[in-house]
Automatic annotation (TrEMBL):
Keywords: DNA-binding. Residues 37-133 form the Core-binding (CB) domain. Gene3D superfamilies: 1.10.150.130. This is Core-binding (CB) domain-containing protein. InterPro entries: CB, DNA_brk_join_enz, Integrase_recombinase_N.
Amino acid sequence: MPSSTPSSASLSPAPDRAEITSRKVAGLPDRLDLADDSLPVWTERYLELAVRGVRSAEVSAKISRNLQRFAAWITDGLGRDRLSAVTPREVSAWRDHLAAAGNRGRDGTPAPMAPTTVNNHLAHVSALFTWITAHA
C-alpha cells in the first residue's frame, strides 16, 4: 500500500523569490554594443536562427512581415530602433493601433484589423522577445 506521506525529495523548499532573476535582465551584458541594442539586428537574428528553415516559407514570410510592421511602428513612433526602448506600454499602444487602424481599406484609408489578426501579430512579437531574452 502506498504511503500517504510525501517523500523527502518533494519536501525540498521552493527557491526564494529574491534569488530568482528577472527574465528581462538575465544574461544581458552591462554595456550593450549599438548593434546589440538594435531591434532590426535582433529581428534578423531571430528570423535566421529560429524561423527560416524551421517554419514553412509562407509562415516565415508572415512572421517576418509582422515583425517588420512592429519595427516600423516603433521606429516611427519613438524615432529610434533601440530594443531597450521597447516597453510593454509601446506593445500595448501598437496593439491598440492595429485594432483601430492596422489595415488599409480598399480605398487606402486606415481600417481596423480583426482581433484574431491582432493576436497573431502579438504572438509573433512575444516569440521574438522570448527568444531574445533566452539568447541575449
